[in-house]
């Protein structure tokens, strides 16, 4: 089905040194929620969804081809700006219409695509690198990546070491990138302005597509993703403690840490607070502490869910922040206060 090109791609991943000693997973929302310290406009605690880890073999990741799940544009000379102009003109306006950030999201996708040279349809890249490239915060990049994944342009895979004793996520993630551009669905088409709709109709006529194009068949990515999930070799649902919804008093545990550790971690938290939104800081960092031994930092979290979230998404961010303050940091690990 895939032919010689697929075999070439397979050898690329199989020989990639970043694969050795790791296994790969996706983060998939569950029906479990936990309460946070944040309040909504009615004064009720904001609940956040718990993600489960779904692990996949490298062979199944290799064989995942995003192109086969949709009607795609023909390859046309004169219609490309790195990628087909259709993406820039018609997809960008509907990627995030409420926040009007579709152009920035489109630029992020083009950036990811630029890494996919030759037969490669994947990229190893860190959030910090992407943030620097598109001149946006890491938090914004995560939001844009989530939108691109929801729309079927990428699929993210995180990695963790196979050694159970060391689960710290590395800075880079594996991102499978769609290299072909699908037509807009009927639902997406309705989000275009009247002027853009008219331009879209002219575009379809210019490439001799019938006006009664079956949009419903153009884009079945969601169904395809569900089929891919059936290949998961393992699924891990985080265990949420019964006490996870109760307020955590960070002051009650500070005596466990030296004055120096409290000072250093306080400086790190202050720098982090300047980099991310107030909501993210209060949700993930406000009730954390750190111990330091031989330049190895152990971050203590109030709950396992917060530990795993920081581990999966903020490891490199925390390490870079520590180094910005000229503190030595050879390694970062995460734990929960109940495990001290």
UniProtKB/TrEMBL annotation:
Domain of life: Bacteria
SUPFAM superfamilies, per the entry: Winged helix' DNA-binding domain
All residue ranges annotated as the DnaA N-terminal domain in the record: 265-323
Pfam families cross-referenced by the UniProt entry: DnaA_N, HTH_36
Identification of the protein by name: DnaA N-terminal domain-containing protein
């Amino acid at each position: 089905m895939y032919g010689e090109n697929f075999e070439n791609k397979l050898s690329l991943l199989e020989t990639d040194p970043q694969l050795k000693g790791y296994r790969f997973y996706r983060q998939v929302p569950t029906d479990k929620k936990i309460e946070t310290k944040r309040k909504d406009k009615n004064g009720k605690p904001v609940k956040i969804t718990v993600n489960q880890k779904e692990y996949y073999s490298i062979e199944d990741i290799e064989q995942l081809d995003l192109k086969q799940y949709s009607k795609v544009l023909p390859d046309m000379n004169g219609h490309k700006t790195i990628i087909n102009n259709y993406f820039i003109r018609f997809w960008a306006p509907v990627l995030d219409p409420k926040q009007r950030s579709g152009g920035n999201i489109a630029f992020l996708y083009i950036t990811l695509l630029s890494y996919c040279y030759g037969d490669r349809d994947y990229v190893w890249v860190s959030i910090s690198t992407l943030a620097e490239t598109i001149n946006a915060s890491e938090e914004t990049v995560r939001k844009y990546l989530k939108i691109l994944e929801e729309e079927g342009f990428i699929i993210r895979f995180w990695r963790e070491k196979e050694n159970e004793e060391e689960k710290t996520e590395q800075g880079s993630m594996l991102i499978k990138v769609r290299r072909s551009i699908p037509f807009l669905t009927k639902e997406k088409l309705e989000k275009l302005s009247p002027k853009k709709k008219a331009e879209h109709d002219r575009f379809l006529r210019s490439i001799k597509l019938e006006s009664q194009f079956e949009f419903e068949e153009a884009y079945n990515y969601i169904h395809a993703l569900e089929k891919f999930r059936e290949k998961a070799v393992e699924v891990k649902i985080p265990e949420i403690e019964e006490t996870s919804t109760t307020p955590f008093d960070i002051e009650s545990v500070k005596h466990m840490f030296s004055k120096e550790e409290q000072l250093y971690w306080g400086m790190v938290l202050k720098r982090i607070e300047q980099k991310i939104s107030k909501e993210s800081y209060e949700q993930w960092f406000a009730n954390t502490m750190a111990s330091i031994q031989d330049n190895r930092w152990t971050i203590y979290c109030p709950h396992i869910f917060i530990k795993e979230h920081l581990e999966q998404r903020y490891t490199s961010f925390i390490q870079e922040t520590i180094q910005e303050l000229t503190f030595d940091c050879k390694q970062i690990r995460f734990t929960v206060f109940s495990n001290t």
